[in-house]
Design brief:
2 copies of one chain form a homodimer. The first copy, chain A, has 347 residues and is α+β, with helices and mostly antiparallel strands. Chain A contains 8 helices and 14 strands. In chain A, the strands form 3 sheets. Chain A has a 7-stranded mixed β-sheet with strand order 9-11-8-12-10-13-14. A 4-stranded mixed β-sheet of chain A has the order 2-7-5-6. A two-stranded antiparallel sheet of chain A has the order 3-4. In chain A, helix 1 packs parallel to helix 3, helix 2 runs parallel beside helix 3 and helix 5 crosses helix 8. Chain A starts with 28 loop residues before the first helix and ends in a 13-residue tail after the last strand. Strand 1 of chain A pairs antiparallel with strand 2 of chain B.
């Protein structure tokens, strides 16, 4: 993020409302005012050098990035700002890493209201705080009308791995137990409801939240976590299909064990969607050794983020690369990875 | 970056050409194929978890991010991919940090040719290698036609500060000497030439390059570097205006000392631009103590990236917050920060 610029006697007036112009992306005074008054102010960042410098202990750091293009930008339970921060905090948490610092880069369409940017920046700051992380560096670019769509945000993050585990799909073993942190499908259905103005809109809130407290609880309980994955695009089924492929195992999922809110189930039926493939932004699966499954479940349920955690399945060796759904009728059904597009621009 | 997906017996055919569809952003098989065959292949990344884990020693790390929206995406001397990598490597270098790892997030407009993505990915991989860094994690999103414009890239990076200096505008002192690493204005004029199909197009190449080797040379020579800044949007004048404001000093720049290629000068005159405000992507200024200025100049000139380095000015106390240009006629002229927009979407 570049420095504010208040040294000019003929400094332009502060940004009281108004809209973003191409000049706000030009690298000059208007851009510096925008950065200072909207972003640096919300993030409590000095923003006067090209990067941020942070002290770390010797050990392993996790790094991750995600772009966010969700439409609408504001939806029940969150907005593109909180989502962008939660998403990157969660990717760090899925490495078992304590979030340390985040960056935020904005691609803004000309004509976007500056008040919209302010709302997004405040929301990002609050979300970062929920994960104990600071937004320490950033960037803004402006593109012409019809070369963008409001605001796109790319966050990146650095976290500290304060354990010796190798939390990765390749650590998954036959016999491991699959825990699911709560009910699924709320983010996808809340965004679809807001987008299409559907009648279920009011009752459904996105599950978008920071998952680090739930992961920290697992680590503090001494659980030998084998793998973690938050359930985003493609939903639970696609996450498990990725596990099965990378680890060369079969994953058996108990249909009856997977919590789905009645409102989500109804919305999915209305839209012809399977909740197992619908996007979440505050749910994850943990793969743990069988002897620690109960202790892990207790550790998860102690946190508000995962108080609805359940044992949802097991890891088997029979059909490597496959996810099998044990249905309510006791039959086994193959769950493939999501094919094609289900819900565009859900995150 | 998400895992490849080759476990499906009925896996879609490889991406031989073709164009990006919304389904390539859906989180399912098409997206996994795109990530595997285009990005993970070029970056030599396994890409099968939500983040990348890297070992670091105890000490300071630098983090930075930048979004890239340059048009055209391919221009003489580079493209949006090499630019996105050089830009983030350079922001790390300006913290005096050795580049360690990079992330890359893509926002792709529906309809973009997959071959264009391949070219960009190859270019990014080569640029990362020039800085000794790996691209270890990433993300792809797809937006509808008219909600984007080809490809936008946001890179973020982590680097290691292997020194005890505080390289920051607040370390600038009265009497310090300002070094400039080479001729200015080439990136801006090369992109403008390519965009407008102007006659000077063929003779001008962007200066886009990784500056870490030049910075490393300064550090290895034991120079007590006070501040570094690469010259991007807003050009040399705006970078110096930022220094003057943050450090509360006057910076006197010698007009005669600033190298400008004749072709750049001619192009600037044609377009009515001042080269001091034109964007660069491979040039930087270093502020060093006067007793080390000659040693620093020698250290810079030893590297191909800064073989044209010059002493360009000094830091004074007279007019805090101001940049003064000592003209060829010996007069002093105030150089304000760039006001408004000069060259939209130059980076």
């Amino acid at each position: 993020m570049n420095p504010p610029s208040d040294f000019q006697p003929a400094c332009p007036a502060p940004l009281q409302g108004g809209r973003v112009t191409l000049a706000h992306g030009g690298g000059g005074r208007l851009m510096h005012n925008l950065v200072r008054e909207v972003f640096a102010a919300a993030f409590n960042s000095s923003a006067d050098h090209d990067g941020a410098v942070t002290q770390v202990p010797a050990g392993r750091i996790a790094t991750t990035t995600d772009g966010y293009v969700v439409r609408p930008m504001f939806f029940p339970g969150g907005d593109i700002g909180s989502l962008a921060v939660h998403g990157t905090l969660n990717d760090l948490a899925m490495c078992g890493a304590r979030p340390l610092c985040l960056s935020a880069a904005f691609i803004i369409e000309e004509g976007t209201e500056i008040e919209v940017l302010r709302r997004i920046a405040r929301s990002m700051a609050a979300a970062a705080q929920s994960g104990g992380a600071a937004i320490t560096t950033g960037d803004t670019k402006v593109v012409e009308r019809d070369s963008g769509d409001g605001v796109y945000i790319t966050t990146a993050g650095v976290g500290l791995c304060e354990h010796n585990l190798e939390i990765h799909p390749r650590s998954i073993r036959e016999g491991d137990v699959l825990l699911l942190s709560g009910d699924i499908g709320r983010h996808g259905m809340a965004v679809m409801g807001a987008r299409e103005n559907l009648s279920f809109e009011s009752s459904l809130q996105s599950d978008s939240q920071c998952l680090w407290p739930a992961v920290r609880s697992l680590l503090e309980a001494g659980i030998d976590v084998h793998c973690l994955r938050d359930l985003t695009r493609g939903g639970l089924a696609t996450a498990l299909a990725e596990f099965a492929r990378t680890a060369g195992v079969e994953i058996e999922l108990e249909e009856e064990a997977v919590p789905v809110l009645p409102a989500v189930r109804a919305a999915c039926e209305f839209l012809g969607l399977d909740p197992l493939y619908v996007a979440n932004e505050g749910r994850f699966v943990a793969v743990v050794p069988p002897r620690q499954a109960q202790a892990a479940l207790i550790a998860l349920r102690r946190t508000p983020e995962a108080e609805g955690a359940v044992v949802a399945g097991t890891v088997r060796a029979q059909r490597p690369g496959q996810v099998s759904l044990r249905t309510r009728m006791g039959t086994l059904r193959n769950l493939p990875m999501l094919s094609g597009e289900q819900l565009p621009r859900i995150c």
